[in-house]
Amino acid sequence: LKELLNSRNPDDLQAANRLIQTLVKAEDQKLEGLHKRADELQRARQLCKQFEEAIIEKTAENLGITADIVYTELKMKVIGR
C-alpha cells in the first residue's frame, strides 16, 4: 500500500484507493459482527433473567408464597431494625 501511494502512476493510485476501500469495508464488517454478537449476548442475558424470574415465581407459587407474604416479611424486617 505504501509503495502504491508513493507512486506517481495513476493506476497505482487507483489500486491503492481500491485496497483502502477493501480494508475499510472489511473492518466495517468486522465491527458489525462484533456489535451483532454483543446484541445477541445481551438478548440472551435478558432471556435468562426472564427465565430465572419465571422459575422463581413458579417455585414461590408452588410453595404457597404470595406477594403479600413477601411484602409482610420485608415490612417486618425493616420495622424490626
TrEMBL record:
Keywords, in A-Z order: Coiled coil
Q: Which residues form a coiled coil?
A: 24-61
Which InterPro entries does the UniProt record give?
GAT_dom, GGA1-3, GGA_N-GAT
Q: Which domain of life is it from?
A: Eukaryota
KW Electron transport (keyword) present = no
Gene Ontology MF, one: ubiquitin binding
Gene Ontology biological-process entries? Golgi to plasma membrane transport; intracellular protein transport; protein localization to cell surface
**Can you list the GO cellular component terms from the UniProt entry?**
trans-Golgi network
Tell me where in this chain the GAT domain is found. 1-81
**Pfam families according to UniProt:** GGA_N-GAT
Classification via PANTHER family: GOLGI-LOCALIZED, GAMMA-ADAPTIN EAR CONTAINING, ARF BINDING PROTEIN
Its name, as the record gives it, is GAT domain-containing protein
Lineage runs:
Eukaryota, Metazoa, Ecdysozoa, Nematoda, Chromadorea
